[in-house]
Each structure stands twice: as C-alpha cells, then as structure tokens.
Amino acid sequence: MAHGEHAPTQAPSPSAHQHGSDLLLCCEELVIGYQGKALLPPINLQVRRGTFLAVIGRNGSGKSTWFKTLLGLQQPVSGRVFRSGPDVKSAYVPQSSGIDGMLPVRSRELVHWGRLSGWNFLRPFSTHKDRTAVEAALESAGAGPIANRPYRELSEGQKQRALLARVLATEADLVLLDEPTAAMDAVAERETMQRLAELARTQRLAVVVVSHDLRVAAEFANQLLFVDREAPAVVLGDANTVFCHPAFRHQYGDDYCPHHPPSGHPLGPAAG
Ligand SMILES: Nc1ncnc2c1ncn2[C@@H]1O[C@H](COP(=O)(O)OP(=O)(O)OP(=O)(O)O)[C@@H](O)[C@H]1O
Fold first, then answer.
1. What is each CA distance from 244 to 132, 240, 262, in whole angstroms?
2. Does the pLDDT of residue 120 top 60, yes or no?
3. Where is the ABC transporter domain (predicted)?
C-alpha cells in the first residue's frame, strides 16, 4: 500500500467548515466494513489540529479498516468521512511495508521521497527547503544516526523510525500511523510516542496512532478510541473513560481502570 498523500475521501461538507479552522477530519455516523457488512457500530468523531489520538482494540477489531476508510482506500458501509477542506494533506504508514525492504536506498533518500510527488520524482536536485525538512524529520523521528545507512540493512525497529521520518517529511496536516512502534524496544517506543505528542502540540498536526501498548498510549495520547467487535462498541474519550468502560474491562480486565484497582496483580501493590 502506498505511503504519502491521499485524495480526500469526500468533498468537504458545509457542516465541517462550520466547526472552525482547527478541524481536519470528521466521521459522521461512519460504519466501516467489507461487502456491505458492518464491523463496528457507527463512528462519530472529529479530528482537530493538535490532537494525538490513539486507536486501541483487540486484533481484528477494525482499526486498520478504519484507517483505510479515512484514506478512501475502502468504501464505508454507510455514513461519511469529511475533510474540512481540499488542502488538508494526509500521510499514512501502514503496519508493514515489505516493498521498502527491497529498495537499495539509504534512509535519508527514503525520507526524501516522502516529499516527492508527480514529476518531482524525476527532479535531480532537492531544494534547500526539502533538505531542511528531511533533516528535521530525521531528527524528529530519532532517525538521525541511521540516515546514511542502507534501509534494507536496518533492524525492524530502525526501519519504523525511518518510515516515521518519511511521513513527517511530507509535512502533512494529518498523520495516520498503524502500529508505528510495534517493532521498537520499550525505550524507543516511549521516545517515539513522546515525540509524536510534541509534534502534534507544537506543529499543530493531528496524529492518529494504532497501538497495542495501552499504558503508553494512555500516557501520551490526549484521546483514546477503543473499538470492539464483541460488545460491539466504539468508545471515544480520555483514558479513564475508556479504561473503565464495561466493554473495555470485558476484554482487558479491571487493572487499567483506577476505579477498579488491581488486586493480586503482579505489578499492583503488594497484598497484606
Ligand atoms: N479485504 C478484506 N475483506 C474482508 N474482510 C477483511 C478484509 N481486510 C480485513 N478484513 C477483516 O476485517 C476485520 C478487521 O480487520 P483489521 O485489519 O481492520 O483489524 P485490526 O483491528 O487492524 O487488527 P490488528 O490489531 O490485528 O492489526 C478482520 O476480521 C479481518 O479479517
């Protein structure tokens, strides 16, 4: 699946414009699924500049399908996705990117490609602005030390950093990352999530991340979206709202909810 820029899923709606300039994307009664069959209840949410949203849920619950639907790669079963304007630029990193592993390029070139589109791809020289953006993206993604290394020789976690840098180099308004830290060690994962949170806040991007590390997601994201096919449920809110929701507790237990403190959990307070 291609990285980088994607066309708007639908033309901007008049109602989307009314929500102000911070609004980038809006799901209205959006039902995702395949062959007309819904995976989840309708999703209603707005993604604004400065948002860092983490999407959580069990395997197969529909997280990647929601991303594909936002990008217009998958048709909704019903409902709509709106961009707030034609200029909203989005960038996407899918879960795994096998094709990149075959390319004989250094990480810096791969990141540079994030800025190219159309005939720019054939341009022999990059501009000063391109080079500055590439270096800033490498730095932001913690990929500076691997910039000169051939991409295909990197570890999976290092590759994820390079791909993150590439998506940041696009200078998109809306960045969708499907498990961007899955191959990273715990330290790199926290650093990356912290960087993404800072980028969302300081650069006024919207960052949406799928993550299976619930505690790290809750620590850095300012909103969580929990999706569950069994309940079925779509729950949007802060960590307490989501972690104390019955559908969440049914799947992950009570240990994440502060109103249901762990008893006898190996990481919880010692008994007695
Ligand atoms: N092209 C397709 N056609 C029909 N069903 C599909 C298709 N792609 C995925 N599915 C199914 O849709 C469901 C949701 O898949 P999806 O990849 O969105 O889950 P996910 O939450 O991202 O899972 P994971 O955490 O494992 O990445 C799964 O049951 C999957 O088998």
1. 44, 6, 13
2. no
3. 25-254
Angle at 114 between CA 137 and CA 142, to 5 degrees: 25
Whether ipTM tops 0.95, in short, is yes
Amino acid of residue 208: V
Separation of alpha carbons 116 and 67, rounded Å: 22
Query: Backbone phi, then psi, for 267, in 5-degree steps?
Result: -100, 0
Is beta strand 78-83 parallel, antiparallel or unpaired with respect to 23-31?
Answer: antiparallel
Nearest residue by C-alpha to atom 17 in ligand 1: 64
Q: How many CB atoms lie within 10 A of CB 215?
A: 11
Ligand 1 centroid distance, CA of 59 (Å): 8
Q: pTM score, two decimals?
A: 0.84
265-270 own/partner pairs: CB under 8 Å, 24+ apart: none
Amino acid at 77: V
